[in-house]
Design goal:
This protein is of the alpha+beta class. It has one domain: Alpha-Beta Plaits. The chain contains four helices and eight strands.
Length: 210
């Protein structure tokens, strides 16, 4: 399984119309393959939308995208609203659940870490050992590493029913020494982070994941 994450920076005050047109076009696009999630930023970089598409592999992605474009139903008529766009392919860690339709949020915290080159195996080992205990406090939505696009990236997404719930969970896990993961405590080699980004996302009305 791979996940294509497409991040679009929109012109100010165009998000509502962008989502309207995207949602209308998606009614036909979903017959080719389903969307996993569609979010817009609530806190962090504003005027940004993120849509995630699951595929079995790159061959399936290319085949489906070509078919939808050939039939004239995709992409949606939204280019006038877009200032910048990027596409990245992510692979899931073993502890990452499959993205399925349902209600997990409606607040999703997406944290993007850029790690030092060559440190992915160390980061993955620490996270896969630490996450099970962290899950006793709240669920994980995704834990992915980049394979194409911006490299040396690690994305983890956490759903919460409210922003207050996020603060409570973070305080509890820190007080218990459960989170953030501590490589030395787990008896594993440490890894280096060179950049961290955090944003709060909310789903659109047509997002399968709410």
């Amino acid at each position: 399984m791979i996940y294509e994450m497409r991040t679009y920076d929109l012109k100010p005050r165009t998000q509502a119309e962008f989502e309207k047109r995207f949602g209308e076009a998606y009614e036909k696009r979903k017959n080719y393959s389903p969307l996993a999630a569609f979010w817009h930023t609530e806190i962090g970089p504003l005027n940004q939308v993120i849509h995630v598409w699951p595929y079995k592999d790159l061959e399936e992605r290319n085949r489906i995208r070509a078919a939808a474009a050939k039939d004239g139903i995709w992409p949606p008529p939204t280019t006038e609203f877009i200032d910048n766009m990027r596409s990245e392919i992510f692979m899931p860690f073993s502890v990452s659940p499959e993205l399925k339709p349902g209600k997990m949020g409606p607040f999703f915290e997406m944290r993007t870490y850029t790690h030092a080159a060559g440190d992915l195996p160390k980061l993955r080992a620490v996270w896969e050992k630490a996450v099970p205990e962290r899950l006793q406090y709240s669920p994980l939505c995704a834990a992915w590493y980049s394979d194409l696009g911006g490299l040396n990236k690690f994305v983890h997404i956490w759903p919460y029913p409210t922003l207050d719930a996020r603060f409570v969970v973070r305080e509890k896990t820190q007080a218990a020494g459960v989170w953030p993961p501590n490589a030395a405590k787990l008896g594993l080699p440490g890894y280096n982070l060179v950049l961290q980004e955090n944003k709060i996302l909310m789903p659109s009305a047509f997002s399968p994941l709410q």
